[in-house]
Amino acid sequence: MSSVTLSGVEKYYGELRVVHGINLIIELQEFVVLVGPSGCGKSTTLRMIAGLEEISEGTINIENRVVNRVAPKDRDVAMVFQNYALYPHLKVFENIAFGLRIRKEPKEHIEKTVREVSEILGLTPYLDRRPAELSGGQRQRVAMGRAIVRHPKVFLFDEPLSNLDAKLRTQMRAEIKRLHNRLGVTSVYVTHDQVEAMTLADRIVVMNDGIIEQVGTPMELFNNPANMFVAGFIGSPPMNQLDGVITTSATGLHATVGDTSIALPALDNVKAGQAVVVGIRPEHISMSSVDGLSPVPISLDLVEPLGSEALLHATVNGQALIIKAETHGEISHLHQVAEIYAPVDLIKVFDAETGKVLNSAARQS
Amino acid sequence: MLNWNLYSRGDKVFAIVVSILIGMFTIATLYPFIYIAAVSFSSGFAAQAGKVVLTPIELTTEAYKYILVQPEFWISYRNTFIYTIGGTIMSLLFIVPAAYALSRPQLMGRRFFNLFIAFTMWFNAGLIPFYLNMRDLNLLDSMFGIILAFAVNAFNIILLRNFFESIPQSFEEAARMDGANDFQVLWKVFVPLSKPAIATITLFCIVARWNGFFWAMVLLQSEEKIPLQVFLRHTLATLSDDDEFAITQLEAAYSAETVTAAIIVCSIIPVLLVYPWIQKYFEKGILLGGVKE
Q: Which end of chain B is more exposed for a tag (fewer CB within 10 A), N or C?
């Protein structure tokens, strides 16, 4: 059963179209993450679901009810804001209870529900404090408490972790995931951080310039990006993209990158001389020889040690390439790397003109 | 502690000049209060002779005894309280919702209404049309007329509107998601968050009402309806015109000057008492912690 359905949803600000006919079905209890760069329309889409922005075209359906003309309070959705939006003059208890008091719920019910929610979120010791007396993580938990307490049909999260430091963000990310598993409420989460998207989502919706580039599970998007944008957005560091030209020989299909030849998987939809972009993930690049593969000479610029792994910044005929290598506690050998191997079956080939993937596996997904 | 060695010569000169200017300004502001208080406790002769500078000369409370026994003084004092409290409440009832409505981007004709309100800051009908308007509304010599006629103040509306506009939109959105309507958003979110601004305009209203003199003099005829400031004016006129009072004042313990000063002191006291109470709302950082910018 679908929980939220967007059909041909568009948003105009005057003449400017910021969301271009989005179609998306979010299943019941699903955790969907809208991800994309700033200005891609993800927050606007979320706000249209919330009812905080009018829908210019199309319809939004929440549990079999078209909500285009329904006020935010009557949509049975709750939202966690990027800047928390906690009422500074109210104590934590009253902040969480606010929505229930507005809806004139009985006092005993409010007391019981707020206590239950505070227990879930570990906020019980802080109920008598004001927001200014809480840490960033605690404030975010209060914001979530305010959403949970109403038992809505859908949770909406608008970049809720972007104001937290890296450590707290990791911790809160896990808490949100645990909370979703426990409550099982349909959630739509907006972020520009692909790591958050990968770790939290059942499905990721990658948006760019007001359109959906691809929808899929985190691993689908990682393994089979539909186009260069998704390939460059998902993964950390993102997929390397080298401009090349298709050449054919007795040994198979190749892409010529400058004066270097890179073996490609078999493709039936390309012809010799066609401009393509060769995509290879940093972690898929091998530094030891692979049977049947010719080495690709690189020029190493920099080695960034990350502990168990290191990032090697290099160029192939002037085009930037990043390699992720395991260190095994030592990086001196990495400074000597002069050639790499790109496993054919892990390479993605994109049409240089349209940016779309040409490998069949991704085309099917 | 301030470490002067860290400051350049220019900075030191600047700090000294600023301190002197602030000191002079403080003295210029405080001196009239001190002078009036000193005169009110001086003898009529000393005040008349211009001997009072900083402290009371020939200390006496005769001027206070003179005014405090007059029933008109107490009636006008009561009236001033009515005009001040009633007028301030009436003003806030108009100003707060108006400022909220004008601060909302979704208000139809928002630009027009803002311009319309601001227009009245620079242009108004003038004395006679206003008087005629009040006459036609049967609000002459009416206490309610005084309270109602000056309830809306464009400057205060704009001041509060700007404050409301500075409140992050997410507060309103969060309240709306929680189910609040416009009145609830205003009353439960915006008003508590705007205490400093509302305290400021409350003080402006109180002071303006308390000191309200001209229109009260023009619009009110009955003695039992006049405020303290008009009573002060009447007293001044009476004492100055009273030949017998003028003849005896050389020996009198009080004079027109000391009585005037005593009435002024009596009229200042309530404002002085109210100010510290309101000042506590001029706290900074009321929004601190509610949102993360």
A: N
pLDDT of B261 > 70? The answer is yes
A190 and A289 both lie in a single domain: no
Taking CB atoms and an 8 Å limit, are A89 and B173 in contact across chains? no
Residue-wise pLDDT for A324-357, tens only, equals 999 888 888 888 889 999 999 899 999 999 999 9
Contacts of B188 in chain A (CB under 8 A): 98, 102
* A229: Cβ contacts below 8 Å, ≥ 6 apart: A206, A208, A213, A355
- A92, A126 in Cβ contact below 8 A? yes
CA–CA separation, B270 vs A226, rounded Å?
75
pLDDT at B239 exceeding the cut of 80: no
What are the start-end ranges of the E strands in chain B? none
Query: Domain count of chain A?
Result: 2
Question: Which of B198, B199, B201 minimizes the C-alpha distance to B186?
Answer: B198
How far apart, in Å, are the Cα atoms of B275 and each of A240, A285, B211? 67, 73, 15
Q: pLDDT category, A365, cuts 50, 70, 90? A: very low
Over residues B66-121, the pLDDT tens digits come to: 888 888 889 998 999 999 999 999 999 999 999 999 999 888 999 999 999 888 88
Asked if B213 and B233 count as a contact pair (C-beta separation under 8 A), the reply is: yes
A158 and A277 co-located in one domain: no
> Are A213 and A314 in a shared domain?
no
Name the closest residue on chain B to residue A134, using Cα atoms: B289
**Cα-based distances in Å from B218 to A217, B140, B142, B180:** 79, 9, 11, 45
What pTM was computed for the model? 0.81
Q: B175 near B189, Cβ under 8 Å? A: yes
- The closest CB to that of B291, out of A77, A83, A102, belongs to A83
Contact A89 B192 (CB under 8 A): yes
List A82's β-bridge partners, or say none.
Answer: none
Alpha helices in A39-106 (DSSP H): 42-50, 92-102
Find chain B residues with C-beta within 8 A of A76's C-beta: none
Residue A92 is part of which domain span? 2-227
| Chain B residue with the nearest C-alpha to that of A142 | B290
Contact B178 A146 (CB under 8 A): yes
Give the percent of chain B with pLDDT over 70.
90
Interface test with B, best of A13, A53, A73 (most B CBs within 10 A): A73
- ipTM exceeding 0.95? no
What residues of chain B, 178 to 207, have a C-beta less than 8 Å from chain A?
178-180, 184, 188-189, 192-193
Angstroms from B18 CA to nearest CA on chain A: 35
Residues A15 and A94 in one domain: yes
Last residue of one domain, picked from the residues A192, A212, A227: A227
Nearest to B291 among A77, A84, A103 (CB): A84
Q: CB–CB of A99 and B290 under 8 A?
A: no
On whether the CB atoms of residues A351 and A276 are closer than 8 A, the answer is yes
Q: What HEC string does A14-27 produce?
A: CCEEEEEEEEEEEE
A92: distance to nearest CA of chain B, Å? 11
Lowest mean pLDDT among A111-115, A169-173, B14-18, B184-188: A169-173
Residues A201 and A257 in one domain: no
CB contact under 8 A, A139 and B292: yes
- The answer for residues whose C-beta is within 8 angstroms of residue B258's C-beta and 6 or more apart is B39, B40, B42, B43, B44, B47, B62, B63
- State both tokens at B71: 């029933």
